[in-house]
């Protein structure tokens, strides 16, 4: 998926495509997590679709719930979804920034030719 440390740095155009691909994957993770939350709040807590979507979005972004959960099932779902949302957030951030972090660390491992033609490590 990523180039080996002995390979050259990816050209800017291909790196931009990689960023778009990983951004789309991150958006997919967020969309799936939002759909799971909205479905759960609608089916288990009995909220209207728009209220279920609002609650799922607020929990997923770390803002907190909007509606009060009154049943035990709804409270258990809200608890599980809040824990899931924390993991989904960390995963999304990791996927989104993985290409950038890889490119940075990869640039530290590049080797350059000095004036005598000998390879040396990048002094950065």
Model description:
- This protein is mostly helical and 124 residues long.
- The chain has a single domain, classed as Helix Hairpins (Orthogonal Bundle).
- 65% of the residues lie in helices and 5% in strands.
- It contains 3 helices and 2 strands; from the N terminus they run H-H-H-E-E.
- Strands 1-2 form a two-stranded antiparallel sheet.
- A hairpin with a 5-residue loop joins strand 1 (111-113) and strand 2.
- Helix 1 (12-43) crosses helix 2 (49-60) and helix 1 packs antiparallel against helix 3.
- The protein is elongated and about 60 Å long.
Order of helices and strands: HHHEE
**Class, according to the CATH hierarchy?**
Mainly Alpha
Mean pLDDT: 87
Largest sheet: 2 strands, antiparallel
Strand percentage: under 5%
Which strand order do you get reading across the main beta sheet?
1-2
Unreliable stretches: none
What is the count of distinct domains?
1
Instruction: Please give the share of residues in helix.
Output: 55-70%
User: What is the CATH T-level topology?
Assistant: Helix Hairpins
- Which CATH architecture would you pick? Orthogonal Bundle
Cα(first) to Cα(last) distance is 25 Å
Task: Give the beta-strand count.
Answer: 2
| SS-based class | mainly alpha
Number of helices: 3
Shape: elongated
Query: In angstroms, what is the radius of gyration?
Result: 22 Å
Topology (SSEs and partners):
Layout: H1 12-43, H2 49-60, H3 72-108, E1 111-113, E2 119-121
Antiparallel strand pairs: 1-2
Helix pairs in contact: 1-2, 1-3
């Amino acid at each position: 998926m990523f180039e080996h440390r002995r390979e050259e740095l990816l050209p800017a155009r291909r790196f931009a495509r990689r960023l778009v691909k990983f951004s789309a994957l991150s958006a997919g993770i967020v969309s799936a997590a939002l759909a799971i939350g909205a479905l759960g709040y609608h089916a288990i807590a009995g909220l209207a679709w728009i209220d279920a979507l609002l609650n799922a979005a607020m929990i997923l972004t770390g803002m907190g719930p909007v509606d009060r959960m009154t049943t035990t099932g709804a409270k258990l779902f809200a608890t599980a979804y809040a824990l899931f949302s924390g993991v989904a957030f960390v995963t999304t951030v990791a996927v989104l920034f993985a290409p950038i972090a890889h490119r940075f660390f990869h640039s530290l491992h590049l080797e350059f030719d000095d004036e005598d033609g000998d390879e040396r490590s990048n002094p950065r």
